[in-house]
Design brief:
The protein is mainly alpha-helical and 153 residues long. Helices cover 73% and strands 3% of the residues. Helix 4 packs across helix 9, helix 7 runs antiparallel to helix 8 and helix 8 packs antiparallel against helix 9. The chain is globular and about 45 Å long. It comes from Halobacillus shinanisalinarum.
């Protein structure tokens, strides 16, 4: 990975749209920025983050509008992928797979975030999706490798 790609990924993780601004794609950057703000406000995600970081998971679950927050994982992961893809002309085949599979897993983590207990605790709409990101990345990278090996690329 080139430094420009890493920079684009890290800015996109910090705030969707910033990676696109870095790549001088102002329309896409503004689109991701607006989507981030709308979804964040309508889902009360910042309040859920604050409650989660303070260990008040029940309050985080109560304030979250899951209908809106369900949009967030795909928009967020696509924004990171887009910033990565357009930050350097040399993008490896099927490099999108870890991003896509992670978006699926994070969404599933969000769906079950108020029901599944890990070590006896419900983790809520912030921590459970973050935990589900890890297997999403691992499976995405493994799937990419398997496909590339089978197609001899």
């Amino acid at each position: 990975m080139h430094y420009k790609q890493l920079e684009a990924i890290l800015w996109s993780i910090a705030f969707p749209g910033f990676g696109q601004f870095l790549n001088r794609d102002l329309i896409k950057g503004l689109t991701f920025l607006v989507l981030e703000i709308v979804i964040n406000l309508c889902s009360s995600f910042n309040r859920a983050i604050i409650f989660s970081f303070n260990g008040e998971i029940t309050k985080a679950i109560e304030v979250t509008n899951y209908q809106w927050l369900m949009f967030y994982p795909c928009v967020y992961m696509f924004g990171i992928w887009d910033a990565y893809k357009y930050s350097h002309p040399d993008v490896k085949p099927l490099a999108f797979l870890p991003f896509v599979i992670s978006a699926y897993f994070v969404t599933v983590g969000l769906i079950y975030s108020s029901k599944i207990k890990i070590m006896g605790m419900i983790l809520g709409p912030v921590w459970m999706p973050i935990i589900f990101l890890l297997p999403g990345l691992v499976i995405g990278f493994l799937l990419r490798k398997i496909i590339l090996v089978r197609t001899h690329q």
